[in-house]
Amino acid sequence: MPTQPKANRGPSAGPENRRALIVAAREVFASEGLSAPLSSVARKAGVGQGSLYRHFPDRTALAVAVFEENLTELELFIDRPESTLRDLLERVIDQAVVSTALIDLIWAHSHDERVVHLGDRLRDMVERKVQREKESGVLGAHVTVEDVLLAVSMLAGVLARSDADERRAVGSRAVVLFTLAFGPR
User: Fold this and answer.
1) 175 lies in a domain?
2) What range does the domain containing 101 cover?
3) Cα–Cα distance for residue pair 130/114, rounded to 1 Å
């Protein structure tokens, strides 16, 4: 028996389709790598390719959407009074482990106007966290925002180049090193 096609709900389905595409992109690129066909993303999201391209005209647009969502999650978390810089680094690991294929794409397009604001958002978040950690005495006075941004960049880069089954262990070792380097002297 042939399957019935989904009813076209028109523009009202847009936000739901966009969200489904972002979730599907994470899963597809995590399992198949960056060269996975975009049709696989659309199929996994349960939408047509037309819907995919309406929301995301290219891979960069899709990667930016994934990272925007990642940053929103980090911002909500990092603004909690009990969150720490170590917690931020642990969350970066969690996100990088499932977004490794997209990290290289974002870095390759770092000057693209769609990508630049991601770095600005990360910088603002790190500035807030560094200031709070210094005021509480957890972070050494020698640590700068640039140091923490470098650590995040190094962490994402090494995770993107590590074997999938080793990423968590590699990330944990890196966080220990950063914690020791960033502590008060």
Assistant:
1) yes
2) 58-182
3) 26
